[in-house]
Design goal:
Helix content: 25-40%
Shape: elongated
Number of domains: 2
Oligomer: single chain
Distance between the termini: 23 Å
Order of helices and strands: HEHHEEHHEHEEHEHEEEE
Strand content: 25-35%
Mean pLDDT: 84
Largest sheet: 6 strands, antiparallel
CATH class of the largest domain: Alpha Beta
CATH superfamily of the largest domain: Chorismate lyase-like
Length: 239
């Protein structure tokens, strides 16, 4: 899939930042400079810079030069974004395998996170997201049936739970817990990694207005991710 001109600019700037060539606080080229360098309009260059700013990767201040955001700022800004969009922005192909989609009794942990009683029926989806056919995220999601009653009727190989949920119950709040974990045997198999492989795990709870919508456990192979102003996943060349 051919990248748009603004995405080419974004990827060029991201490569310099992620490689360490441009450390934090480094001045980033202006709209005019980028427009000339990539032979595009100022509007195209502005879009690339604005999206990097929205993601917390760079800072933009009126009357001042653009600069790479501080590492502290980048690490604290975990945006809730659609993984398919993240992958597409890198010019790669997203695919998803729906492992299961069913109603199950809520465990103590899930019931606590969703504000329900243990044993109450909740909707569970387990999906493996891949980038260019390499697994980069295992999404285990538990959904409140009272808020999203039609959840089990969806095909999450055609759309992501994120897209569906934000359409049905627009998100208003979220909290995160991020930690390094060792892959369990089941996660090892689903992510196609070696037993005991270190992983980054994000536990995320989301609300729509005052109701909890879902509780998700997102597990990423440790050698296929980078944590910045947003979650960026880099597939390993080895599977």
């Amino acid at each position: 899939m051919r990248q748009s001109k603004y995405e080419v600019i974004k990827q060029s700037l991201l490569q310099k930042i992620e490689s360490g060539e441009w450390p934090e606080f480094t001045t980033v080229p202006s709209e005019n400079a980028l427009a000339e360098q990539f032979d595009v309009s100022r509007m195209t260059a502005r879009r690339a810079l604005q999206e990097l700013s929205d993601q917390g990767i760079i800072t933009r201040n009126q009357g001042a030069a653009n600069a790479v955001a501080s590492i502290k700022s980048q690490s604290s800004l975990i945006a809730i974004r659609n993984i398919a969009d993240e992958i597409a922005e890198r010019g790669h192909q997203h695919s998803a395998r729906q492992v299961s989609l069913q109603a199950i009794p809520a465990s103590q942990q899930v019931a606590h996170q969703l504000g329900m009683q243990q044993g109450d029926s909740v909707f569970q989806s387990i999906i493996v997201h891949s980038e260019d056919n390499v697994p980069v995220q295992l999404e285990e999601r538990y959904v409140n049936p009272k808020v999203v009653p039609e959840y089990l009727g969806q095909d999450f190989e055609k759309t992501t739970p994120h897209i569906y949920l934000t359409h049905i119950a627009p998100l208003t709040d979220a909290d995160h817990q991020i930690e390094a974990v060792l892959a369990t045997p089941n996660r090892t198999e689903l992510l196609n990694i070696e037993p005991g492989q270190p992983c980054l795990q994000v536990q995320r709870r989301t609300w729509s207005k005052k109701a909890v919508v879902s509780f998700a456990i997102l597990t990423h192979p440790g050698h296929r991710y980078r944590l910045g102003g947003h979650l960026t996943f880099h597939p390993s060349k080895k599977i």
